[in-house]
Amino acid sequence: MGTQLGPHTRDPEPGTTLGPEPRPRPPGGRGALLTMRRRRALLPWALLTPALVVIGLLLLFPLARIVWLSFREYGLRELVSGESAFVGAANYLTLLTDPYLWRVAMFNTVAFALVAVVATLVLGTLVALLLSTLRPVTRVAVVSCIMVAWAMPAVSGTYVWMWIFDVENGVVARALMAAGAIDPGGYNWFADRLFFYGIATLNVVHGGFPFVAVTVLAGLLTVPRELHEAALIDGAGAWKRFWHVTFPVLRPVFAVVTVLSTIWDFKVFAQIYLMPGGDVGGSQMLNLGVWAYVRSFSHNDYGLGSAIAVLLSLLLLGVTVVYLRVLFREDELR
């Protein structure tokens, strides 16, 4: 059918086509168009405002309060009177010049977090690879079982591991006594710094690997089979297929679980504090999180305890920023 033209419209030139009619501009011209665009840009922020207000009240205000306390002399007397003196960076100078920070608390925090994060990621990834080979019904049953460990509260899990490594009546102690490896009186695993954090690592990895396994499994199910089939035809082994095919596709997934695991393991508290010796100030077992609590509530030095908490927050922020920058830089180079 031809295009019908009005009585005052000329016929188009041969070889030309009629373009689409221009969109009608909103009333008010360019100013109204800019206003409409601004409203559209502000709409997401308006929808997020209630959640941001709640986050600000629950997170930002306590954080600001801790930073404020870290610059003041705040002990039991100041807590009762409500008045405190501004001391500037004195708490931070005391903290940074304390040998206990570098020899014990910082070393325990960083070394424990590195070992726990690596162990959690490796075990979680291996479990995810195993789950990806199972049938759907069997996979659901196994996932339901391992999620029990993730859902278990940290306090309950810590007491279970304390019972397993009890000095005299623990499962490990009884097995070693029966084998003649230790004396009948048992062995205090919690008195040795290495064994203490070994038990804490088992506790944290046991509670954290299900999250990594389920998250990585969700990513594995999105990897196209054609990529693995092509790599298998080219003669690539299991490790090469994982490293050159699976890992590049799941890089964002591993970034998320690594950052979250790092944050969780750097600020571990209950798994250290509840174990024998984990709540004693000046011992060789404290990390930064527990040390901040002990200095604040056992020694009534809330200013120095707040300074330790701020240092831990800055350490977490620095580790997260560095890891994300390295990750994004690798993506840009590809």
From TrEMBL:
Transmembrane segments: 42-68, 105-131, 140-164, 194-221, 242-264, 304-328
Keywords, comma-separated and alphabetical: Cell membrane, Membrane, Transmembrane, Transmembrane helix, Transport
UniProt-annotated location(s): Cell membrane
Residue ranges of every copy of the ABC transmembrane type-1 domain listed in the record: 106-323
Keyword Disulfide bond attributed: no
Gene Ontology cellular-component annotations: plasma membrane
Region (Disordered): 1-30
GO biological process: one example: transmembrane transport
Membrane topology designation: Multi-pass membrane protein
The name this protein goes by in its record: N,N'-diacetylchitobiose transport system permease protein
Organism annotation: Nocardiopsis aegyptia
